[in-house]
Design a protein that fits this description.
It is a single chain. The chain is mostly beta strands. The protein has one helix and six strands. A six-stranded antiparallel sheet has the order 1-2-3-4-6-5, with helices on one face. Strand 1 and strand 2 form a beta hairpin. The two termini are 20 Å apart.
Amino acid sequence: MAYDERLAGRVRALLHAPVVERRMMGGLCFMAGDHMACGVVGAALMVRIGREAFPDDPHVRPLEMGGRRTAGFVLVDPPGV
């Protein structure tokens, strides 16, 4: 799956070193140290929010990989970005 280059550019402009970009999960991830902080998957923004947090927003949905929800991450669809 390709990721939205324009959204990736917007994320790059907001992040500061030391952040490393890695292609993962069919998208682009931004790593802070050895931890995934955020990324771009398709047209959605992937964000690490912690296991207990989940915003009540119609543009936010759980990140699912292999049919399973990934705790601590959400996808923000384009209207919510």
